[in-house]
């Protein structure tokens, strides 16, 4: 049954929905029809995002002006604006009388969180956070079984959201380069990885029903090349936070960007344990470390099958479903303002812990107004990169520097293809499936002319403004591409000969 014919809620009431932030926000709209939602308005300052929105939702209202957007006649906002702006934007929606479904994270500073909680309580409107990772088939299965007591009490957990997204520092979410090209992304270019902690902590909270109570994280100095912020600030690094949960257990919450994207999940309970690795869910049941360990296959019901057709393993459907259900039926959703705060605050405090040398911090419970009041003036946050003016000196020639975002995007992508082939070729004799190396060689052969053209533009920009941040990240990426080797005209012939030798070895 398709999402256009399935009737989820037994009511004729419709929720008129506006989407604020048409990059990530646009990925939700196809699910709305089955959930009594009608998308009627969109807002984004990027014209190409608005144009794409209107292609999918012809006849809807579209604007780049937030006040004009919020003045329209609709009931609820799916808020997917810039991450550090979520709290103030959500407050504006609530003041306009709209229900709010906010992308993660809920707020960027503790003081913003206090203002947001106050605004939700005084508004009488529904507020939910789009934490979608708990709502995969595997995680929903674990949550059901945890509530049934199958695993006992949580002893320890490890959840990982390690995701290297370097190109998104220089593009919009749809991969289009930032405009003007001498600027960088408004938050993905600088935000510290600890802040984006909810996709790993959220599943742990939902499965076990526990909340975080204390957090600590050690400083981590190493960064991947190509990122703008150095040291312990910004993206491009990796380090876990350790979190006490409300039953006294400990969770290792790992975020960051490194050379291995991973979403491994492990839970140890007093009666049983579970691990989710590469999409395979295995349980060890029997109350002993040597108990039988078997793979299980969680199954969806009809509603779950509809969910599985949407993004993030079904999670995008479920957060919309819970939001609509709360508006239509009054049933509380999993991530209300208080659970959203529980899930957001440990990221803020983990970053703070790291810059203060590993100092532990208690996680306040924003349900308790006296605890909340202690943070009304707490505006601590990381330094922000100057996304408009930080790359190049003020007198730089825009005809040259506005090529930066496109050049950086393509240089990173082409270099990744080169490095995959070159580094794997160093262990070619050890690879179980050597035919894969031929495919990597073919991919590099196809992209090499584009890499060489991009290297020339990158070198021109870097040499024109050698002391700039833009030049630094270009040089770091050129070094990864082994420019001295790969930019030579004869390298294409050398690569073709290497490919022939590889093929002969496979044969």
Describe the structure.
With 507 residues, the protein is an alpha/beta fold. Among the domains are: 134-300 and 335-365, Dihydrodipicolinate Reductase, domain 2 (2-Layer Sandwich), CATH 3.30.360; 398-506, no CATH class. The protein contains 16 helices and 15 strands. It has helices at residues 47-56, 66-70, 86-95, 110-123, 137-147, 198-208, 302-308, 315-329, 337-355, 369-373, 398-401, 404-425, 435-464, 469-480, 483-486, 491-506; strands spanning 15-20, 37-43, 61-63, 76-79, 99-103, 127-130, 154-162, 212-216, 238-245, 250-256, 265-269, 272-277, 280-285, 293-296, 361-362. The chain starts with 14 loop residues before the first strand and ends with a helix.
Largest sheet: 9 strands, mixed
Q: Do you know the CATH topology of the domain at 134-300 and 335-365?
A: Dihydrodipicolinate Reductase, domain 2
Count of alpha/pi helices: 16
**What CATH first level of the domain at 134-300 and 335-365 would be assigned?**
Alpha Beta
Strand content: 15-25%
Element layout with pairings:
Layout: E1 15-20, E2 37-43, H1 47-56, E3 61-63, H2 66-70, E4 76-79, H3 86-95, E5 99-103, H4 110-123, E6 127-130, H5 137-147, E7 154-162, H6 198-208, E8 212-216, E9 238-245, E10 250-256, E11 265-269, E12 272-277, E13 280-285, E14 293-296, H7 302-308, H8 315-329, H9 337-355, E15 361-362, H10 369-373, H11 398-401, H12 404-425, H13 435-464, H14 469-480, H15 483-486, H16 491-506
Helix pairs in contact: 3-4, 4-9, 5-6, 12-13, 12-14, 13-14, 13-16
Quick rundown:
The protein has helices spanning 47-56, 66-70, 86-95, 110-123, 137-147, 198-208, 302-308, 315-329, 337-355, 369-373, 398-401, 404-425, 435-464, 469-480, 483-486, 491-506; strands at 15-20, 37-43, 61-63, 76-79, 99-103, 127-130, 154-162, 212-216, 238-245, 250-256, 265-269, 272-277, 280-285, 293-296, 361-362.
